[in-house]
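mind reviewing both lines:
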Amino acid sequence: MRLSTHALRWFARLGPIVLALGMSVAGLAGATGQTPELGQPNPADGDGTLAPEVQAALASVEPGQKVAVIVTLREQANLRLPPGLARTQRLERVVRALQAQAESSQRALRPLVNSLRAKGQVDRITYLWIFNGLALSGTPEAIDELAARPEVLRITLDATIQGPDAPTLRGPVLAAENEPNIAVINAPALWALGFRGQGVVVANMDTGVYLNHPDLVAQWRGGTNSWFDPYGQHPITPTDVNGHGTSTMGVMVGGDASGSSIGVAPDAQWIAVKIFNDLDVGITSAIHEGFQWLLDPDGNPATADAPDVVNNSWVIGLTPVCNLSFQPDVQALRAAGITPVFAAGNFGPPSWSSASPANYPESLAIGNTYNNDQIYFQSSRGPSGCGEAQTIFPEIVAPGVNILTTDLGGFYTRATGTSLAAPHVAGALALLLSARPDLPPELHEAAILSAAVDLGPLGPDNTFGKGRLDILAAYNSLSLFQARAYMPLVASAGS
């Protein structure tokens, strides 16, 4: 990383938060288009175009049956952007670059795919631009033919992912002025200053959202660009038959209809992607579609209707410890200026318990604490299973034990896990964005990390990360910055 003299002067004047920003921007390959891992196989996959699990599936498939796969092409979009772009410009340029690359490199492959489809050898074809590839079901012969094409980098299974457990403790609520978890992170202090998430759009990728909850219905942005169900089970109206997605949304933007303030950013608007179907199963290709929709919800790159922050309270699983299936998607979000918040996982306390996608370098991973700042024993610990020798896992912790939040049917639930900790941070980012919309998302994130309350051993560690979320301290640190002052630093640190 080469820093200009101007940038070095700013480092000296602005202190720890700028150092945090420098490390953050330099480490987020997707934010600059430097994507050395883009499209690369998982560490355990071995060599060859066909992943081992695809080879095994092809060897065991019955005659006439097809195997569902993901085909990743070799050429990937360059997402390096010039410094100083507004968020709307970043978003449009990233979407257009991804779409242009996909259109160009998929053009040569489409005649073969169409020919195979005409022969009945492939079906269920979905072309994707977020990582430049496609999903399809094909016979062994068809998949072998695709694997032989020079433009194809990798073929992996279109795998299924088990969804999260549904909340179990639901019913009415005893009112309090503010829930203790909301008070611990100092959200009411930002509300008192007039910052409640207004003008900010948050999203979750989860089991859906129960729209008609009194703490959520008014905050839905509404319209066809505010809800996406890739399975087509609920194409128009936000729906949740599990409850998990409703609970995470409540922590982000829930109001006080019960008499108790339960959400971090109650005036933010929300949109959502239902990445788990009504059977609580996610399919890799559908999740790719969900990430793609988030970048351009209305299908028009010229309109900036993507969310500012996306909460992801889900994991692929612990085996393998590093699964890079969705790394290109997360990199694209970063490049577009959308902060991807991920639950760290509930596989603790072992030190090897980090989970994907939270353990990607581009993900902001959140661990789980009690309201008294003790770590919850199941909160996943680092170091990251995806390398990141220069970083820690999780990055930060937030309350996630016995959290009061929204549930199906207009009821409430108390739930525990990193799934509840993560939306505290997503909501916190919404508060900071409403307070300082002139600053880039990387700086809001750096403020949250640098201002965290240090817990455990002195300094960052692989249990608490940088410490526990403190929104007021993060806001105060942002007061150091003027809109025109940070741009040379961001540009230099990212080069």
